Amino acid sequence: MASKALRKIILIFVSVVIVLVIVTGVGYSWWNNAMPEKTCMQCHEIVPSAEKWYASAHRDIRCAECHGTAFSNGIHSLKEKAGMVFQHVNRKVEHENIHLNEMQLLETMERCVGCHQSEFARWKAGGHSVTYSEVFEDSAHNAMETPYWDCLRCHGMFYDGNIKTLVYDDQEKLGGWALKNTEQANLPTIPCMACHKMHAENIPIGEVKEKGIVKRNKAVHFYIRSDKRYQRADRLLPVAMVDKSGNKVDVSNDPAHKLCIQCHSPNFKREVNSEDDRTPTGVHEGISCVACHETHSNDVSKSCCNCHHIISNCGLDVTQMNTTYLDINSPNNIHSVTCTDCHDNL
Amino acid sequence: MDKFSRRDFIKTSGIVAGGLLLLPCCRYTEQPYRFFSPEEADCIIALSEQIIPHDKYPGATDAGVIYYIDRQLSSVFHYDQQTYRLGIESMQLACNDMHKKLFQDLPVSAQIMVMEEMEAGNLNKYNWPGGNLSSFFNLVLKHTMQAFYGSPIHGGNKDYMSFEMLQIDYPLVIGQNRYNS
Amino acid sequence: MNKKRVNAVVIGAGAGGGIVAKELAVNGLSVVLFERGKWPVYDEHPNDELISQRTEVLGSPFGPDHEKNPRVVVEADGRRHIVTPIAGGYSNNAACVGSGTVSYGAMAWRFMKEDFQLKTIYGPVEGSTLEDWPITYDDLEPFYEKAEWEIGVSGDDASNPFAPHRRKKQPMPPFEYNHEGTVIYNAAKRLGLHPFPIPMLRNSVRYNQRPACIRNRMCCGFACPVDAKNGTQNTVIPIALKTGNCEVRTQCMIAEIVINEKGKAEGVNYFDEKNKGHFQPADIVVVSGGAIETARLLLNSKSKLFPRGAGNNYDWVGRNLQGHAYTGAFGLFDYDILDLTGPGATVALCDFNHHNPGMVGGGLLANEFNRLPYLYTNIRPPGSARWGIDHKKFQYEMYRRTSQVVGPIQEMPAFDSRVTVDDNVKDFWGLPVARLSGSRHPLDYENCRFLSAKAEEILKEAGAYHTWQSVGGRGLSGGQHQAGTARMGNDKKTSVVNRFGQMHEIDNLFIADGSLMVNNGGFNPALTIMALGYWVGGYIANNFSSTKFRTG
């Protein structure tokens, strides 16, 4: 009799498990494809993010497509999502305290590539795909600087720790700086999210048309590490720049330009071409960085032809001109070239 | 002993599945505020809007001052909860006695008049144990200024709109620091 | 649980304690440097006016925790309030490694010769415990120099005729004047005054392997994003750690100094970061918790020989609490006088520090640190709207057009301005909290009126179309510039420690912070506290080997 009872218990148990697996499986696949208001938005702390997402360019993409599911990354993602449920149940979490950590952010970024392959390829080819190792273990740079908190404002803005947990600085033993955690070495320091706010109010691709031609929406944001939030680039104030003699220089009000200067910045006097600033003066005064620089790769090759004829008025082939600012001997440094650099009698 | 019948199976499955389907019932019902009731919030919104009114630049309502106050009252300023709760109640009582309306339903000129009376201490007969309307007004005044002019990370000053008004460029643009002058 | 015995325990890793720890560690003594706060991390609270050490609206970024550390304030009419760091009148100094030197405005003043001899120069002041210091400026001069070179100061005394003599220049050139500074400088010159660049514990050029200042707008009240502001946390404490002789124990709250029946300090009882109690034995104990917390700890350390608290048999511990009444004037200009480059204060003058008829002491005047938008909402001419459209208009029309000239007045020490402990109010660890009571000497207000009038004169000369004074000097003293509560002196009946910061009746217990100061000068006190740290630390290090200090 005892064994019969046992058998019954086992049978109940097995059937419960089977039902659970089926229901969970069906439920789970429904969950991952349902609209957020039926799923993620059940948790109050997610609601503001989801509401922004409804107004974003990505409104047709489900949460899981970017943020992954509990099973998209093995035990790691299972732990992560379980942690979210735990936090929610404990009621300790409010929306303003939710931030992706760097690993979650980079995983999300990998999913960006699925759709944005061309942008990714250009970013990869340009300077902004620079890794932690390339930034923080550059011996030429490190000989001139000591690590400080603010380094992470422009590279490593999503790093979870701070500069003291990121690098050692020991001139005697290490001959400079070294990353404390070697796993950090090959991660990108300026991921997509440095300039792109995923949940920003925006219009999906293809819906913006100018004279019947589909245009890409160009809204960009600056991620302010210290605030853990974004500022719309068009809401950034233009920086009032001066030349070496203190005269005011015209600066482009283009949002992209105002974004660039956040990191490609002048000294505290706001002098053009001081420190990392490359605000154009001379004949190019007032134009935006992105008039010449491609936005993702920063490539400028042949960009002169965006505005100029290949053969210039003075007979020079602009595609062959040495216009780089890196070459101090260049007679045509594009950031500062003036008419009198070529023409004597003006 | 009866065996585990098909009926039992269906019953068990039903309970399990039903239980799972019921999960969404712990569903969150949308409430915009953590501390205020919607009526209380409307009152504070109206009050703070007259403290920092909209002109050619945004005012307290545009900047989301209410979200700052609401959030701080449910955390750092928890000790001010009672003052808000009773202060709003007393203020509405005073408005009802004078105008037969809620503060937020008064025309702007009447709102300003009530506020001037509160500030001057003329409505302190509407007091409560441990507080009165002039100290309540001063508290809302202080919190409104904090919300409008402080960092947006605390809930107010949406998109740094007060910094934009003051022409304060933020974040501060700072180049790498190799210069020596 | 008992810990391994060390030569010295230093309590408080601020301007005084950090330096003492370094002086002892480099001279081979084993040191445990206790700090109730944490190592400061810029990333935790940057660029946020509401959580800055200056306004402390929503929290103190560099401590202490506002829920765990109440104090009691007693008003003139006897009403008692329990206050926290975020709710007015608390007199907070930061609680972190470096303490106030992480987030200060970093003015680097030497006191003048006169500041050490006020009683001799001005005679006794009725109702004040005014006294000469047991040391002179000349005694302290080499230690000022050490502070300037080891911590790092930018400045140049050449155009300040009132500057006390110095053997060596400050190590870095002075900062330039900002726009407001230039206007004030020119006006002061026209009035026959002697303006000059403010000396700063901040790098005008690269120094100590750390970069030059970036003129950050949010400086005073904040940590520096590029580490160009010099405090003990980025100078002497790292040196102490490098010797291998010093351990910094953070998030540790000292409960009491244990005094044995022979009248020696045996060590300290403390709570660690997990609030677990420990005893740390030591040959000597140095207290440098700031004038309020130092006094509180001494008063809470009761023993058989000192039933009223360590070194308090003559009831002088906690007395003479001083701070700085800030006083000055505002002026409105019809053009943008502020360029908002950081930190803001660039020009000062010492014409009114001493030798002005009718004044005992005086104070420096300087243009003010940048006032961020929330702080500015309270700056209005008398009678202005506090809210509404006029208040808002003033905010956006005058934010860059309001100049302030202001300075700290030399307060007269008052016996009843004091720190006691309140046995009825306990902190998170169950320790009686500090209770602040008494009020400033009436002369402080008179001196403030004098200095404010001078400030207004300068602003008028500078072209302000409207000016008004803000006069300080009344009510309770204290504040960030707290001082005076463990006075140094030669007589054990009218002071707490001797000229080396050593307790009169407890040979191995020292004080090294603002508490030592007999009076607080008309200057920001940070550099003087640092010099005193070198003075006390140097004395201990030089005398340790031949010592009677050892108890174990």
Architecture overview:
The complex is a heterotrimer of chains A (346), B (181) and C (552). Chain A has helices at residues 2-33, 47-54, 63-67, 74-90, 102-115, 117-125, 132-136, 139-142, 163-166, 255-260; strands at 167-170, 176-179, 209-210, 213-214, 221-224, 229-232, 241-242, 248-249. With 346 residues, chain A is mainly α. In chain A, strand 5 (221-224) and strand 6 (229-232) form a beta hairpin. The longest helix of chain A is centred in the first third of the chain and has 32 residues, at 2-33. The model of chain A has no long low-confidence stretch (mean pLDDT 86). Chain B is mainly alpha-helical. Chain B has a domain at 39-49 and 59-165. Helix content of chain B is 52%, strand content 0%. Chain B contains 7 helices and no strands. Chain B has helices at residues 6-22, 38-51, 65-73, 81-99, 108-120, 133-149, 161-165. With 552 residues, chain C is an alpha/beta fold. Chain C has a single domain (6-543), classed as 3-Layer(bba) Sandwich (FAD/NAD(P)-binding domain). Chain C is 22% helix and 17% strand. Chain C has 11 helices and 17 strands. Chain C has helices spanning 15-26, 100-103, 118-122, 137-152, 179-190, 236-242, 290-300, 373-376, 388-398, 442-461, 526-543; strands at residues 6-11, 31-34, 71-74, 80-83, 196-197, 246-249, 253-259, 265-271, 277-287, 326-332, 347-349, 365-367, 402-408, 418-426, 432-437, 466-470, 509-511. In chain C, the strands form 3 sheets. In chain C, strands 1, 2, 6, 7, 8, 9 and 17 form a 7-stranded mixed beta sheet that branches. In chain C, strands 5-11-12-13-10-16 form a 6-stranded antiparallel beta sheet. A 4-stranded mixed beta sheet of chain C has the order 4-3-15-14. In chain C, strand 7 and strand 8 (265-271) form a beta hairpin. Chains in contact: A-B, A-C, B-C. Chains A and B meet through helix 1 and strand 6 of A and helix 1 of B.
- Amino-to-carboxy terminus distance of chain B: 94 Å
Question: Runs of chain B with pLDDT <50, length 5+?
Answer: 19-28
Mean pLDDT of chain B: 87
Q: How many H/I helical runs of chain B?
A: 7
Instruction: Specify the number of helices of chain C.
Output: 11
Helix and strand succession of chain C?
EHEEEHHHHEHEEEEHEEEHHEEEHEEH
Give a count of the beta strands of chain C, DSSP E runs of length 2 or more.
17
The computed structural class of chain C is alpha/beta
- Helix proportion range of chain B: 40-55%
Secondary-structure element sequence of chain B? HHHHHHH
User: In the CATH hierarchy, what is the architecture of chain C at level 2?
Assistant: 3-Layer(bba) Sandwich
Rg measurement of chain B, Å: 25 Å
Computed CA radius of gyration of chain C, to the nearest angstrom: 22 Å
Q: How many distinct domains of chain C? A: 1
Major sheet details of chain B: none
CATH T-level fold name of chain C: FAD/NAD(P)-binding domain
